[in-house]
Amino acid sequence: MDCTLNENPWRDLEEKIRREKPDVVGISVICTAFIYDGMNAAYLIKAANPKTMIIMGGEHPSFMAEETLRDCPAIDYICVGEGEVTLTEFLRRVEKKEDLSKVLGLAYLNEKREFVYTGDRPFIRDLDSLPIPAYHLAKMEHPFVTLPSEGKRGLVINFSRGCLWDCTFCSESAFYKKTWRRRSPKLIADELQLLKEKYNRDIFYVGDNTFNVVREQGIGFIEEMLKRKTKQHFWLQSRADLILRDEDLLDGYREAGVYQFMMGLEYHSDAVLKDIKKRHTVEQAIKAMELLKKHKLMVMATLLIGHWNETEKDRNDFFKFFGKYVDHFGLNLITPLPGTPLFYQMKELGRIKDWDYRNYDYLHAVMSVKEVDDLEQLNLIYRDIMRRYYWRPREMLKIFSPNPILRHHHRYYITKVAFNIMMHEIFGTPIWVQPNYQEYKDYLAERGEVLPKELMALAK
Ligand code: B12
Ligand code: SF4
Fold first, then answer.
1. Quick check: CB of 165 below 6 Å from ligand 2?
2. Phi/psi at 382 (nearest 5 deg)?
3. Cα–Cα distance for residue pair 123/182, rounded to 1 Å
4. How far is the CA of 263 from the centre of ligand 2 (A)?
5. What integer pLDDT is reported at residue 313 of this predicted model?
6. By the 8 A CB rule, do 389 and 319 touch?
7. Is 172 in the pocket of ligand 2 (CB under 6 A)?
8. Which residue has the higher pLDDT, 141 or 150?
9. Is 197 exposed, middle or buried (0-12, 13-18, 19+ CB in 10 A)?
């Protein structure tokens, strides 16, 4: 059940649990910012059917297993790390009423409420051993299961796990312990062909942290896509140094349907890049952007502001620097995601000012910088950069760009996002929330006293 698609997510979840009385429910928490929704779901499930066993998985609960279990007594188990094998073993043992302490990768509190971790589960060695995701079980025709893209149905997909680098803020590298595994290009192409033929999907954001860690992955992908002629389009993620390494493949990528590379370029100063262990230089970043342009590929950069020594001048230079090169960007406030080296460093230095995980979404400041102590002030600075960037004539003109993807992106941003920011500033409405999102406490208020009072009091 993907509650993010339900018109009444909490009500539908509660009704389903009451109706089906499942033995086990697994809850997936993909972002730190969603941890309280995951916990609230656990409370609701336990209230609806106290016998249901609850297991939670995802990066945040994996890194913060003990904290999560202590904070939310409704959660029985946490799957630490990759879920496929752990969950299968877990369910087999639950079915046979066997000892769960033998399942690697499980965390729980025992009868004495002591924290137990059964030990690391090794990563799945061969990702090709996993089947194609069960798309037939997902609501593929739901309007939210898409990407903003001109006239075409999009989808987010994933073909590799992890990354070999160790940027200090990166939860992926920490989760996969600096390892990288990939699916073979043939299986990638099989999946894409299925998505085309059965689900009419033509455009994809490939969520792999770093698509082309090895050249062979790019070469194989290009060959397969040229052979299949599915005329699909891709937005891939990579690093500046890998784009430079693979310059000779860039035309091939374009011919295979790639329209854009997204790179985590982060900042315009080598000192900051060094500090966050980006392991490439500003010069490499510029060259990579120029190369992509030369080969008629769009440049999307993800950028990070909010570094400790950052000054107003830095932010202005940053804005001018990236405004010159990128087609569009994802602007983020550097966030100490639990589990990352940055989290432990910042905690130690006492720079984390906001412990409400709802705000750990890269869009809210949770750490101050040397010059600006007030987090709300930093949030305003963030929004101001977004506004200044998109209101420039150069960006406004992209609304009429002959490139349909860029045109659509800018129309989307300048109308929808700018409008949302304005509504937020005038009326305080949330900026990035789906129309069907409901806060759990609002659901409980609407629901009344039917749920046990203790559980209502625990709502996050
Ligand atoms: C696809 C994706 C998106 C998509 C779709 C999101 C969605 N709602 O489905 C889009 C582009 C919309 C998106 C947006 C955002 N995303 Co995003 N996204 C991803 C991405 C690339 C892939 C996620 C995925 O499907 N992974 C594949 C699955 C198989 O991996 P997994 O979720 O980790 O699950 C495994 C284990 O964790 C475990 N597991 C997970 N759940 C469960 C449950 C049980 C019961 C069990 C047993 C095991 C288990 O088993 C799984 C298989 O091994 C990840 C990065 C990544 N490579 O994972 C970022 C990532 C999840 N996103 C992230 C962020 C921050 C966001 C945004 C907040 C960014 C923003 N500022 O707007 C928004 C949130 C929007 C939203 N409302 O969801 C961060 C989260 C970091 C964190 N710790 O908080 C990630 C990790 C990227 C990163 N490092 O920055 N995202
Ligand atoms: S290169 Fe990207 S995915 Fe790899 S560690 Fe750095 S931020 Fe994470």
1. yes
2. -60, -50
3. 12
4. 9
5. 94
6. yes
7. yes
8. 141
9. exposed
Distance 52 CA to ligand 1 centre (A): 25
Amino acid identity for residue 403 in this structure = N
Specify the residue with its C-alpha closest to ligand 1, atom 22: 207
Q: Which ligand is nearest to the CA of 60?
A: 1
For the record, the structure tokens of 1 come out as: 């059940």
- Whether residue 457 is predicted with pLDDT greater than 70 in this model: the reply is no
Between CA 292 and CA 149, with CA 418 as vertex, the angle to 5 degrees is 45
Picking from 181, 176, 151, 153, the residue whose alpha carbon sits closest to that of residue 166 is: 176
Q: How far is the CA of 79 from the centre of ligand 1 (A)?
A: 15
| 152: pLDDT strictly greater than 90 | no
Cβ of 273 closer than 6 Å to ligand 2, yes or no, is no
Q: Is the pLDDT of residue 106 over 70?
A: yes
459's CB contacts (< 8 A; 6+ apart) are 40, 43, 440, 441, 444
What residues contact residue 80 under an 8 Å CB cut-off, 6+ apart?
61, 62, 65, 86, 105, 106, 107, 117, 120, 121
Amino acid at 288: A
Angle at 332 between CA 374 and CA 182, to 5 degrees: 145
Instruction: At 252, list the tokens.
Output: 């091939």
Mean pLDDT of the chain: 93
Give the mutation target among 23, 30, 172, 382 for probing the ligand 1 site: most ligand atoms within 8 A of CB: 30
Q: Which helix (H) or strand (E) segment is 217 a member of?
A: helix 215-228
Question: Burial code of 154-191, b = ≥16 C-beta within 10 A, e = fewer?
Answer: bbebebbbbbebebbbbbbbbbbeeebebbbbebbbeb
Which residues, in sequence order, are bridge partners of residue 54?
25
